[in-house]
Amino acid sequence: MWIADNRFGMQGKGLTMKQVKESTNSLTRRKFLKGSAAAAGAAVGSGAIGGFPTIWAQEIKDIELRHLGVSYSVVKAIGDQAAKDLGFKVTMQNLDTSAAINRFITQPNSVDIADLEGWQAKLAAKRGVIQGIEVKKIKEFDNILPIFTKGEIDGAVVSRQGISPYEAMYIETPDATKLHDGVTEWATFLPQVYNADSIGYRPDLVGHPVTEWKELIDPKFKGKAAILDVPAIGIMDAALCLESADLIKYGNKGNMTKAEIDFTIDKLIELKKSGHFRATWTTFDQSVQLMAAGEVIIQSMWSPAVAAVRVKEIPCVYAPVNKKGDKEGYRGWCNGMGLMKHLTGKKLEAAYEYINWYYTGWQGAFVARYGYYSPVPTKAKPFLTAAEWDYWYDGKPAPDEIKDPYGIPMEKAGTVRDGGSFLDRVKNISCWNTLMDEAAYMNKRWNDFKVA
Amino acid sequence: MAQSAAFKRNLAGWAYVAPLVVVLIPFFVLPLIAVVAASFFETDGFGGLFPAFNLDNYTEILTSGLTFNLYYETIKFTVLTWFFSLLIGFFVAYFLVFHVRNQLLALGLFLLCTVPFWTSNIIRMISWIPLLGKEGLVNEALLKLGLIDQPLEFLLFSSFAVVVAYVHQLTIFMIVPIFNAMGRIDKRVVEAALDAGASRFDIMRLIIVPLSKSGIALGSIFVISIVMGDFFVVKVMSGGGSASVVGAFYENISVLQYPTAAASAVLLTIILVITVGLIIRFVDIRKEITR
Question: For the domain A196-330+422-451, what is the CATH code?
């Protein structure tokens, strides 16, 4: 499991599981007392939602849902809370992204709830291992942000480069294997947690604010830069850099032609041969170590990893790479929940309850505390303190000290979140995690880069 | 009568191997057959497999410059690791067998060699990072001593780091079989050679090395097959700056290119079988061990 992504770095902060449990519990209690109305609603939870009789509680207590996926999305503390609120058993199991999709496809019956990114939802639908989610049964569906349900936010159309969550979200019939462009009654997956990735850097050593991707490939950072080594998304970070430096204009960064792939990889090889990259990284922890140990001063990075470096008292900034014309912007990603095809009867009902529970706020508040967003922020808000909401969502200076989901102090009062408010960030997403049509070719060329 | 005796002997033989067969067939032979079959299949890029029974996957691999580069890297790491672990392993075993007079002490020291291996090999690999890094212990020490004025970057995230980690992890696989083989050498042979006026070098060349070769061969098989079948050490210690054969087909699996990955795996298996076959051809391990 060591190679699994660990985006919020529990190991990085040296927490024992016991500490984690304790702080989660105390947090839950505090929250419970605080937003009493909302919390009580969530705690009684789904029983009330479906209006099931008491017999329901008897029947579901033997049900076990197996939720499988990456560690930053499928979180044990969240599963435990859901189980407590819903009255059935929830087992969370973590795999890295590629192991997860392989598992869904080759052993679909060993999974109940699949943790899917947009491109994985497309694949899973194509292979027929998931069933359509009936949108009508999702109580908060209309409150889910339109980024996902309609492909727009705040009046602006969300980028369709790569596979946007909206693009991968709909199918026409529950067992359709082809995605449908446009809103339907059936969803392949429903969003759960998402964010916008960019660059992390050491402000003390870089010397000026970074707002453009091209800084990552600037010769002045030779031997001090690193890039993400997960081919499918590493190449998009590279593409953002090359586009930012005016070296190429892509038709669609998220679905390159062979010629575009060749150009990008050749450029990467050139950079590598000139000694530009100190290293490449694959896991959350690696990126934190590279930065904290002074190996690199600028690299593509995930937001909680930047926070993890700062917790070590080392200055580190998450670059706000707002869109400038057709260039720059964040690489967005979104993990959601899909229902495996074999779910039927009571277990299927429980699975719907489980999905509905995610939109009652507890989970949204939990992920907000490590820098990720909820698809229904309005529901998460009552579960956050005013200070937390100001800091994480509104981009205002934190009125109080900010703590992570496990109660560890992570930012001092007065800190402003890098990249600004929620809207500033998500409106500047210019491409989404993807699996290109030419993925096999791209992978081969990526290995050329690795071995060069 | 004679026939039934032979049959009985046969039956006993089968009974001996039965447990192994029961384990090997479902957990080794069948998966291997599946991999070989998949290597002749086609994929739709979405994880779907279609029987094509053509050699496309193999043609693609064998005509790709990438395959050559990957094997070059992997063989480079294998040869370097094999060389250094053999050098260190041989002399450690030699010391334990011929220089430590007290047998109990020798055994104690031998067990001491295994102590680092009580921790996971991942931990042992990761431990090199704070030691070899730009701001690591080695660089700090050299800087403070005034021997260098810039941190040495080749120490970490380099081929050097990969070989260091492999040698650290795998030398024990050399020590154990060589120690075992050397322990069987009759000390009187060495004494006789000394009495006959042989130099230390001659003793080493004409007695110790030839009589330890089963151990050397066994150790080599362990080290070579482990290094060639691994990708994680290369990935971490080279800082992603290098790739390996297995790493490349792991990446193939992550984008659901099962047939290509299967063909690469079959090719690697064939190359390893040939390598091990060559070693066994030069050293009859079975004979040496039962000696």
Answer: 3.40.190.10
**Which among A106, A281, A447 has the least Cβ separation from residue B243?**
A447
- What ipTM describes this predicted complex? 0.82
Whole-number Å distance between alpha carbons of A109 and A341: 8
H-type alpha helices, A207-315: 231-244, 258-273, 284-292, 303-311
The single-letter DSSP state of residue B147 is S
* Pairwise CB contact (< 8 Å): B46 & A127: yes
CB contact under 8 A, B134 and A295: yes
Residue B289's pLDDT band (boundaries 50, 70, 90)?
low
SS3 content of chain B, % helix, strand, coil (to 5): 80, 0, 20
Residue B226, domain extent: 65-290
CA–CA distance, A382 with A361 (Å, rounded to integer): 8
pTM here is 0.83
Residue B45 within any structural domain of the chain: no
pLDDT digits (tens, 9 = 90+) for B233-250: 999 999 888 889 999 988
Q: How confident is the model at residue B1 (pLDDT cuts 50, 70, 90)?
A: low
Band of pLDDT at residue A188, cut at 50, 70 and 90: very high
> What confidence category does residue B44 fall into, taking pLDDT thresholds of 50, 70 and 90?
confident
What total of structural domains would you count in chain B? 1
Residues 6 or more apart in contact with residue A111 via CB below 8 angstroms: A66, A68, A103, A104, A340
SS3 B278: helix
- A97-112 pLDDT, tens digit per residue, is 888 999 999 999 999 9
The answer to whether the beta carbons of residues A184 and A167 sit under 8 Å apart is no
Confirm whether B110 is domain-assigned. Answer: yes
The domain made up of A17-194+335-383 is a member of CATH 3.60.20.10 = no
Domain borders along chain A are 17-194+335-383, 196-330+422-451
The rounded distance, in Å, linking the Cα atoms of A63 and A90 is 8
Distance CA B82, CA B91 (A): 14
Could you give the CA distance from residue B137 to residue A99 in angstroms, rounded to a whole number? 36
Task: For residue A315, give the nearest of A417, A424, A413, A204 by alpha carbon.
Answer: A204
Asked whether the beta carbons of A268 and A168 are under 8 A apart, the reply is no
- Give the per-residue pLDDT at B3: 66
Tell me which residues of chain A have a C-beta less than 8 Å from any C-beta of chain B. Answer: 2-3, 97-98, 101-102, 105-106, 123, 126-127, 223, 226, 229, 231-232, 272, 277-282, 286, 289, 293-295, 435, 437, 439-440, 443-444, 446-448, 450-452
Residue of B72, B159, B250, B255 to mutate for A, most A C-beta atoms under 10 A? B255
A17-194+335-383 shares its CATH topology with A196-330+422-451? yes
Q: Which amino acid type is present at position B235?
A: K
Question: Of the candidates B64, B153, B255, which has its C-beta nearest A435's C-beta?
Answer: B255
Mean of pLDDT over chain B: 91
Give dist(CA A94, CA A42) in Å, integer: 25
Closest among A331, A321, A283 to A305, alpha carbons compared: A283
CA B134 – CA A296 distance, rounded (Å): 10
CATH number of the domain residue B271 falls in:
1.10.3720.10
Residue B178 lies in a domain: yes
What integer pLDDT is reported at residue A44 of this predicted model? 44
Which residues have C-beta within 8 Å of that of residue B288, sequence separation ≥ 6?
B181, B213, B214, B217
In a domain, B32, yes or no: no
Instruction: Check A447 against B73: CB less than 8 A apart.
Output: no
Q: Do B235 and A98 touch (CB under 8 A)?
A: no
For the record, the structure tokens of A69 come out as 């996926």
